[in-house]
Design goal:
145 residues; Rossmann fold; two-stranded parallel sheet; 7 helices; 5 strands; 63% helix
Length: 145
């Protein structure tokens, strides 16, 4: 179980200089234990960084620095790898899709992140994405920042 679960908008804010960076750092510091990360987080963060590099929103040095900071936070225990209970996550994602997508217009990855958080027993969901915030709140998670 983890107390907090972050989506990619939160993780990107931790590793790139952007509008939500300070809020992300404050929220991370307030967590009572390391932030759990899954293989889904690994993929999404790395892909978001590569996409920003492709769009020329960051340069190669910023890209490499973000990857190095991500690795350093793993090594320091700030981030902790978590296994995903995939069968429960898929069931929960389908349930959320059936009940919430007609009203909220949920994207598949948003459903998967919220479903992962629920399947892992998270109480808090960390996001800067408005649509994902709505889904997490409806699903019963406390949303920050």
């Amino acid at each position: 179980m983890t107390t907090g679960y972050a989506d990619s908008s939160f993780l990107v804010a931790l590793y790139l200089p952007e509008a939500h960076a300070a809020a992300a750092q404050r929220s991370l510091q307030r967590l009572p234990q390391p932030l759990g990360v899954t293989p889904l987080h690994e993929l999404e963060l790395r892909n978001a960084l590569r996409l920003r590099r492709f769009r020329r929103e960051i340069n190669e040095a910023e890209y490499q620095a973000a990857l190095a900071d991500w690795a350093a936070d793993h090594a320091a225990g700030i981030l902790a790898p978590l296994p995903v209970p995939w069968p429960a996550t898929w069931r929960e994602a389908e349930r959320l899709s059936a009940t919430q997508t007609p009203a909220l217009g949920c994207r598949s990855l948003d459903l998967l992140h919220v479903a992962c958080a629920l399947a892992m027993g998270a109480k808090t969901f960390l996001t800067f994405d408005d649509r994902q915030r709505q889904l997490a709140q409806v699903a019963g998670l406390k949303v920050k920042p």
